[in-house]
Design brief:
The protein is an alpha/beta fold. Helices cover about 35% and strands about 15% of the residues. The chain contains 15 helices and 18 strands. The strands form five sheets. Strands 4-3-2-5-6 form a five-stranded parallel beta sheet, sandwiched between helices. The protein has a five-stranded parallel beta sheet with strand order 16-15-14-17-18, covered by helices on one side.
C-alpha cells in the first residue's frame, strides 16, 4: 500500500483525514469531518424538531441527505402516520430528492442499492447500524438525533479517530455455516463491548469469496460489537456491483462510473499500528445462535436444539436480502411449517422482493405456509408486523435480542442464520441447518 506522507495509516485514519481535508490524522485526534451523505429514517420527524430549535431555515446540503420511511412502514398507528406526514412535508420544503417512500425498503439496503454511498466516503446515519456501509469500503457510523440536526445545519461533525481492531480471516466456511455465524462467533468470543468505539478492519483472502450479501451481514453486525465503524477492503465484487447502479442514478456511462468508484477506494497500510489483531479460521466455525437476552450469549446450535419455537423471523437490515430468502426457500421447499409455528419473511427492499418473486422463492415460501410482509424493518424493533406474545419464543435472523426488543418483555429471542431460522420453522423447534444439529 502507498503510505500517506510516509506515515502508515489505518483505513479510518485515511478516510477521516480525507473527510477533514487533512493529509494525515492521529488516533485519538478530533477531526472536523464533512460527510458525503447524511442518513435518517422515520426518526426524521424528531430530528426536525431539534433542527428547528437551531433557528436555521435551510439544511446545509439537501443533495447529501437521504431519508427513508422504513421502521414503522406502513404506519401502524396514527402517531406514526403523523410522523410520516411531517417528514414528507419537510422533504418537500427542503428540496430533498433522495427520499424513499414506504415500501422501498430498509435504509441501509436502499442506499446501497441506489449507490448513494461509495468506497472511501463518509456516511453519518441517525441509525445505530450505519457501520453497515463498511461492506462498500466506506466509513459509516451512527450518530444521535441532536448531532444529526446540527450536521444538517452546519455540514460537519467532530469525530474522534478510533483505534483499530484487525481481523484476519483464513480458511473457508463449511456447508451450513454462514457469515452470520462468523459475526456471532466474534461477538460471542470477545463480548458485545469488545469493539467499543473501535474501527473494525477485516482482511484476508477469504473475503474475496464473500458475495455482496454476505459482506453486508458482517459489517452490519459489528454495530452489536460496539464498533464505531467496520471496513472490508473493496474489490471487483464491490466495484462491479456498484458501477451499473451509479451509472443508472447519475446517467453517466458505466465505464466512467467504474473508474470513479475505483478512484475513491481507500486501503489501510499493512504496517499501520492497530490496537488488536485476531485471526479467525472460518473452517473451524459451526452454526451458532445468540441466546436471550444478549447478543454475545452465543452457543452452538446443537446446545439449544429442541427449544420450542413459536415464531421464526427472516428479514431486517442484517439478513433480509435475496440470498437469505433463497436459502430459506431451499430449506422449506416441498414442506410445511410446523403446526403452532409461524414463519415471517420481510424482504429488505422492493428490489429484493421483486427478484425473489421473479425467481420463485416467494411462491415456494408461501406454499410452505410463510407470511410475506412489505419491505422494511417489520417487527425487528417491536413496532408491528410480528411482535411477540407473552411467553413466546422467536428465532430470528435479526441483529438484536435484548429483552423487549420485539415489543414484549416476557418473550425470548434467539438470533441465527436464515438457514437455521427456516429449518426451525419446519420443525417447530430450534434445529441446525437442513436438520443437522452439528457440523
Amino acid at each position: 500500500m502507498v503510505q500517506t506522507n510516509g506515515v502508515a495509516q489505518t483505513f479510518v485514519q485515511k478516510v477521516l483525514a480525507r473527510a477533514g481535508d487533512r493529509e494525515t490524522v492521529d488516533v485519538g485526534e478530533v477531526v472536523d469531518a464533512t460527510p458525503d451523505r447524511l442518513l435518517s429514517h422515520d426518526n426524521t420527524a424528531a430530528i426536525r424538531g431539534y433542527f428547528e430549535t437551531l433557528k436555521v431555515e435551510e439544511v446545509w446540503d439537501p443533495d447529501r441527505m437521504a431519508i427513508t420511511l422504513d421502521h414503522a412502514a406502513p404506519a401502524p398507528t396514527p402517531q406514526h402516520a403523523k410522523n410520516h406526514v411531517e417528514i414528507r412535508q419537510f422533504v418537500e420544503e427542503q428540496g430533498i430528492t433522495n427520499f424513499f417512500e414506504v415500501g422501498r425498503g430498509i435504509c441501509h439496503q436502499v442506499l446501497s442499492e441506489e449507490a448513494l454511498i461509495l468506497p472511501g466516503q463518509v456516511i453519518l446515519g441517525a441509525d445505530s447500524h450505519t457501520p453497515h456501509f463498511g461492506w462498500l469500503g466506506a466509513f459509516g457510523t451512527g450518530i444521535g438525533r441532536s448531532e444529526m440536526a446540527a450536521t444538517w445545519a452546519l455540514g460537519e461533525l467532530w469525530l474522534r479517530v478510533p483505534e483499530t481492531i484487525r481481523f484476519e480471516l483464513t480458511g473457508t466456511l463449511d456447508t451450513g455455516v454462514t457469515v452470520k455465524d462468523l459475526a456471532l462467533h466474534i461477538i460471542g468470543t470477545l463480548g458485545a463491548d469488545g469493539g467499543l468505539y473501535k474501527s473494525i478492519e477485516f482482511t484476508g483472502e477469504a473475503i474475496r469469496e464473500f458475495p455482496p450479501d454476505d459482506r453486508m451481514v458482517l459489517t452490519n453486525m459489528m454495530a452489536e460489537f460496539g464498533a464505531k465503524n467496520a471496513y472490508l477492503p473493496p474489490d471487483d465484487t464491490v466495484f462491479n456491483w456498484l458501477a451499473p447502479r451509479l451509472a443508472n442514478r447519475t446517467e453517466m456511462d458505466e465505464d466512467h462510473a467504474l473508474a470513479q468508484i475505483r478512484a475513491l477506494a481507500l486501503y489501510p497500510d499493512e504496517d499501520a499500528e492497530v490496537a488488536e489483531t485476531h485471526t479467525v479460521n472460518l473452517s473451524e466455525l459451526e452454526p451458532v445462535v445468540a441466546c436471550p437476552h444478549n447478543v454475545d450469549n452465543v452457543v452452538p446450535v446443537r446446545e439449544v436444539a429442541g427449544r420450542r419455537v413459536h415464531q421464526a423471523y427472516i428479514g431486517t437490515c442484517t439478513n433480509g436480502r435475496l440470498s437469505d430468502i433463497a436459502a430459506a426457500a431451499a430449506v422449506v421447499e416441498g414442506q410445511r411449517i410446523a403446526e403452532g409455528t409461524r414463519l415471517l419473511v420481510v424482504p429488505a427492499s422492493s428490489e429484493v422482493l421483486e427478484q425473489a418473486t421473479e425467481q420463485g422463492y416467494i411462491s415456494t415460501l408461501l406454499a410452505a405456509g410463510a407470511v410475506i410482509s412489505p419491505p422494511g424493518c417489520g417487527a425487528c424493533m417491536g413496532n408491528h408486523m410480528g411482535v411477540l406474545g407473552e411467553g413466546e419464543v422467536c428465532i430470528s435472523s435479526a441483529n438484536r435480542n435484548f429483552q423487549g426488543r420485539m415489543g414484549t418483555r416476557n418473550a425470548e429471542i434467539y438470533l441465527s442464520s436464515p438457514e437455521v431460522v427456516a429449518q426451525s420453522a419446519l420443525q417447530g423447534e430450534i434445529a441446525g441447518p437442513f436438520g443437522l444439529s452439528t457440523k
